[in-house]
UniProtKB/TrEMBL annotation:
The keyword Transcription applies. Residues 86-126 are annotated as: Disordered. It comes from Actinoplanes subglobosus. It holds the Pfam family Sigma70_r2. InterPro entries: RNA_pol_sigma-70-like (IPR039425), RNA_pol_sigma70_r2 (IPR007627), RNA_pol_sigma_r2 (IPR013325). Signal peptide: none annotated. It comes from the Bacteria. Residues 25-83 form the RNA polymerase sigma-70 region domain. This is RNA polymerase sigma factor. Keywords: Sigma factor, Transcription, Transcription regulation.
Length: 126
């Protein structure tokens, strides 16, 4: 059995819910995907992040893979597109979260009273 045939069999088993098969696929392809991504990015830390994102995308899409025998090129295409997405202008490795400010209790008004009664500074329904 060739590597491609073995991968195809593992893909079908994984699609049917076999976690061991999925683990084997990831085990077989984790390092090759990481090396592929690192070769494009030239940075180990970024390769870690991008290959993790590629795997997340691949695992979400695996149930829809219709040609299991094309697993390797399919997976590497996902990895390449993940790299391309990080290289687009405007992509930020660490998005800055907008600060969230909770409204003060006195600024919140509840129509018809709040539950539990008296919460958020509003009078209990009466």
């Amino acid at each position: 059995m060739t590597d491609a045939e073995r991968d195809a069999l593992l893909v079908v088993r994984a699609q049917l819910g076999d976690r061991q098969a999925l683990g084997e696929l990831v085990g077989r392809w984790h390092l090759p995907v990481w090396r592929y991504v690192r070769a494009m990015l030239g940075d180990r830390a970024r390769a870690d992040d991008v290959s993790q994102e590629a795997w997340a995308r691949a695992l979400r899409a695996l149930p829809g893979l219709r040609q299991p025998e094309r697993f390797a090129p399919w997976l590497l295409t996902i990895a390449r597109r993940s790299v391309q997405a990080t290289l687009k202008p405007g992509h930020d490795d660490e998005p800055v979260a907008e600060p969230v400010t909770a409204p003060s209790r006195s600024s919140v008004r509840c129509r018809g009273g709040c539950w539990p009664p008296g919460s958020l500074g509003s009078p209990a329904p009466g």
